[in-house]
């Protein structure tokens, strides 16, 4: 058994207004009291971060953001900085989600700068990587993962990356109901861990948590978590309902 504490993270995307978010967070707190040996995080929209930060204060559920601006402050309309996220009570930031890459055209270079801002602020980055269906069909999965990790983590050293988390999210499995088979997921996770070892050494490769994301739900989480290189899940749709998400969290 490895020493990595599993992390189950919920990405609420652009769902829930403030009162819906507050209600879900409160119910989730009730449903997960006493859960041990699993780290839990939820990432609501920016609009409800402060409110949810107060609800989660002094609890075991951590707050995450879905995005960040790499700049410290300034005339950047519509953006949010690391210090703003910290002041709302955030400890995690999702960076480079495939929806950010595909819909909002974030590049590996943007993502690299965002990771830098997250680390400099003492926040925990969750770097998302994953191939599209056509890239998988073309046999390019590992090539894509290699490139996303190489460029996303350009100019970093193992010492900066102690808190880094990587989420492997095959784009074709996000919100589609299609899940990668356990073997497909494990194969990519193993590849990512080996890549981290080659690039940053054995110690980081052994300690880094690699989450799986893409249609994770109560019915498949247990099998997924049985894979040796899978250390948790980034959950979209199934994190929106507190009861369903608590079942994912209590997969053991
Ligand atoms: P999903 O989303 O669980 O709805 O597939 C996962 C994600 O986008 O992180």
Measured by DSSP, the beta-strand proportion falls in 15-25%
Rounded to the nearest angstrom, the radius of gyration is 17 Å
> Low-confidence parts lasting 5 or more residues at pLDDT below 50?
none
Instruction: Classify the fold: give the CATH topology.
Output: TIM Barrel
Count of separate structural domains:
1
Give the beta-strand count. Answer: 8
Mean pLDDT: 96
End-to-end Cα distance, whole Å, is 15 Å
Could you explain the architecture of this structure?
By secondary structure, the chain is α/β, with parallel strands linked by helices. The chain has one domain (11-29, 38-232, 245-249): TIM Barrel. 42% of the residues lie in helices and 16% in strands. It has helices spanning 18-31, 49-56, 82-88, 98-102, 108-120, 133-137, 141-152, 182-200, 202-207, 218-225, 242-249, and strands at residues 7-11, 39-43, 61-65, 90-95, 124-129, 165-168, 209-213, 232-235. It has an eight-stranded parallel beta barrel, surrounded by seven helices. Helix 7 (141-152) crosses helix 8 (182-200) and helix 10 (218-225) runs parallel beside helix 11. The longest helix has 19 residues, at 182-200. Residues 11, 169, 174-175, 213-216, 234-238 line the site of 2-phosphoglycolic acid. 2-phosphoglycolic acid (PGA) binds next to strand 8.
